[in-house]
Design a protein that fits this description.
The structure is a single chain. With about 200 residues, the protein is of the alpha+beta class. About 25% of the residues lie in helices and about 45% in strands. The protein contains two helices and ten strands. The protein has helices spanning about 15-45, 140-150, and strands at about 55-65, 70-80, 95-100, 105-110, 110-115, 125-135, 155-165, 170-185, 190-195, 200-204. Strands 1, 2, 3, 4, 5, 6, 7, 8, 9 and 10 form a ten-stranded antiparallel β-sheet that branches. It is elongated. The termini are far apart.
């Protein structure tokens, strides 16, 4: 018995050209995807971080302190770097700050207006907050009292918020300085000021 010939047919010239084009397209598509992925990765890796903000000065004034109550005021000045106005924060907007001791928020300022920031120029903004006879956890008040009487210095954390002008954001830029050391003036248990190198506050 002989071997029967199958129904296999050789591809025509048109089919061969079509297959060749398909293979070329597939190769170019893979190359395109690899290049596009590399570009996205490169942009992500080289993306510049949001500029930090320098804390120029911070003062803490004790108006009255008891075992459970605190009356005090905080005055804060920050330096806006030249690449922040316009690109990130609005030239006119609001600034608000909160002050913490051992992760407990003691005071939060009302939103305060700022205006007339200039492009590509570092500028200083100021904000203040206070508490008046607020009931505070006894251990917190005790620790603050020990700081001012024995250590002659106190450490606070601060958060402040600026109006964000970037698209597709929630409208607020948040910055944090977690460990700010204030030292009391010699012979004083009333006013403490920033001590040491000015901290850099980071965007979060």
């Amino acid at each position: 018995m002989g071997i029967e010939e199958g129904n296999h047919k050789e591809p025509t010239t048109g089919e061969r050209k079509l297959r060749t084009r398909y293979k070329r397209f597939s190769c170019w598509f893979v190359v395109f995807c690899v290049i596009a992925g590399f570009i996205v990765l490169l942009v992500w890796v080289t993306k510049e971080p949001v500029p930090k903000i320098e804390l120029v000065s911070m003062e803490f004034t004790v108006l009255n302190i008891t075992n459970t109550r605190l009356s005090a005021k905080w005055d804060l000045s920050i330096r806006i770097p030249n690449d922040l106005p316009g690109q990130y924060i609005c030239l006119q907007g609001d600034i608000q700050a909160s002050f913490m001791y051992k992760n407990v928020t003691l005071a939060t300022s009302f939103p305060q207006k700022y205006s007339n920031l200039q492009y590509f120029q570092p500028q200083v903004l100021k904000v203040s907050a206070g508490v008046s006879g607020e009931d505070i956890d006894g251990l917190i008040v005790k620790d603050i009292t020990e700081d001012l009487k024995e250590k002659k210095e106190v450490r606070f954390g601060t958060r402040f918020y600026l109006t964000d002008c970037r698209k597709k954001t929630n409208g607020t830029m948040k910055y944090a300085c977690d460990d700010v050391t204030l030292r009391f003036e010699p012979g004083s248990e009333i006013k403490a000021a920033l001590f040491g190198k000015n901290p850099s506050c980071v965007y979060y």
